[in-house]
Amino acid sequence: MNELIKIEALTKNYQRFKALDGVNLQIEKGKIIGLLGPNGSGKTTLIKVITGLLKQYDGKVYIDGKLISYDSKSVISYLPDQLYFDSWMKIKDVKRYFKDMFSDFNVDKFDSLMTTFKIEDRKYIKKLSKGNQEKLQLALILSREAKIYIFDEPIGGVDPALRDTILNAIMAHHTPESTIILSTHQIYDVENLFDQVIFLKEGKVLLHEDLDKVLEASGKSLLETFKEVFRYV
Ligand SMILES: Nc1ncnc2c1ncn2[C@@H]1O[C@H](COP(=O)(O)OP(=O)(O)OP(=O)(O)O)[C@@H](O)[C@H]1O
């Protein structure tokens, strides 16, 4: 089965505000997908639904062929953008925690990523720089042998050199069996990585298409296309 995520008529209201409005999506395996849209378009809300953090909504969400449930977490590797660690925790503690929590957590992969990122095990997480915290988060996500990897702004607020390191690590760990969903505003840096893009606007899917087709139809870069589609009046 090629379909890893299927979403039918998904609507999410926050009180009377519609954050997601009748979203239908089918996401296949083996893809790298850019989830793009302006501030407030519903990207994080959609990610929270797919990852099971938000449970109150209308519509149906299937993960790996089954209606979303607590078990769906076993095929999705995701960390919320705000990570909360106790002040006593060192990297080796969070590694142990992940090993206990997720049977698919690959310790060797984690250690190798931390070596690549030059971060030592005995460091306190709270004392890491923002960039190193981003790298730790990335290593935790990538070290699971999951089917779906979701990144919400993995390169927000990091320097351009680190951006490349992070994007290279994501690319290096991608397999034909897994799908990556990457939400970002840094379109210029990532547009060559995507197989497909999803444009969200005011809670609706404006476009879900192969990147090649989008570029061919517009005759412009993805960044230029994005700016044109979402231009503020
Ligand atoms: N808990 C909440 N209560 C009320 N409104 C919310 C809540 N969470 C999100 N919203 C609203 O829902 C809309 C979609 O928010 P969401 O965070 O999904 O957008 P986004 O596309 O991820 O934005 P950004 O690019 O700025 O991160 C926004 O208008 C936001 O203000």
TrEMBL record:
Pfam families: ABC_tran. Keywords: ATP-binding, Nucleotide-binding, Transport. GO terms for molecular function: ATP binding; ATP hydrolysis activity. SUPFAM superfamilies: P-loop containing nucleoside triphosphate hydrolases (SSF52540). Residues 5-227 form the ABC transporter domain. The keyword Hydrolase does not apply. This is ABC transporter, ATP-binding protein.
